[in-house]
Amino acid sequence: MELEGGHRRMNDMWMVASVTGAVVGATATPWITAHGLAQLARLDAARPGLALASAVAGGGAGAAAIVTSHRAGTWWLVPALLVWGCALVAAASCDAVTQRIPTPLVRQAAVGTGVLLTVGFAVHGDWLGLLISGLAAAAAGVVLLLCWRFAGAGFGDVRLAVLGGLGLGHATHRGLLLALAAFSLITVTQAVITFMRDGDRRDTFPYGPALAAGFLLAATL
User: Fold this and answer.
1) Which residues contact residue 91 at a Cβ distance below 8 angstroms, ignoring those fewer than 6 apart?
2) What's the CA gap between 51 and 58, in Å, rounded?
3) How many other CB atoms sit within 10 Å of the CB of residue 91?
4) Radius of gyration of the chain (CA)
5) What is the pTM for the complete model shown?
6) Sign of the CA dihedral 100, 86, 219, 112?
7) Distance, first Cα to last Cα, the chain
8) Which of 54, 154, 162, 184 is most buried, most CB within 10 Å of its CB?
């Protein structure tokens, strides 16, 4: 009975943490998005609709950070995953309205996430998780590098993929498969909408939102 009460209290604590993470993500992500637009010298693209969309998606990223940390069994990953998720959403939001990903933002987020992950995994003693995060970042970068070379992706997408891979230290096979399906669905939908609107197959469309959604799903599910 006492054990059940302890489990219940622990679950309640994680639920409160999820709500808190969502609030932090929803608050921080619009600001990070505006910072990225400033780096691109495109503050003219900062519209109320973009701020709202990035806040909603950032709230989801914040909650995802808590859920992923819960599955890993440690609070120490929360700071790293909050930075990671909010930066992914912010970069994708910039890409959605400018077709460009702010390189300084992605680099800063990758360095910050890498340092915080190293601290979190080290304190938790999860060296395998740290190794998998590094391998996932490298693998995601290589895949998008091939897409950049042969499929018309931008080099900013390659950088974003490296950042995205850092959050996959505890990804499951199911999460990876669902993430791949979500990425494919979003990409195909964007391509169809772009072609129907402009009638030109050479028109580009942003991969950032699909990449961010895929990585967040892979880390969370």
Assistant:
1) 36, 101, 102, 105, 106, 109, 160, 163, 208, 212
2) 10
3) 30
4) 18
5) 0.85
6) positive
7) 30
8) 54
User: What are the residues whose beta carbons fall under 8 Å from the beta carbon of 89, sequence distance 6 or more?
Assistant: 25, 29, 33, 54, 57, 58, 60, 61, 212, 216
Phi-psi label, residue 74: left if phi above 0, alpha if psi -120 to 50, beta otherwise: beta
CA distance 105 to 107: 6
pLDDT tens for each residue of 138-196: 988 888 888 777 766 778 888 998 999 888 888 777 777 777 777 667 666 666 666 66
The structure tokens listed for 148 are 């950049």
Instruction: Find, among 140, 152, 145, 150, the residue nearest to 187 by Cα.
Output: 152
Q: Which amino acid makes up residue 157? A: D
pLDDT in tens, 99-154: 899 999 999 999 999 999 999 999 988 899 889 889 888 988 888 888 777 766 77
CA distance linking residue 87 with residue 33, whole number of Å: 8
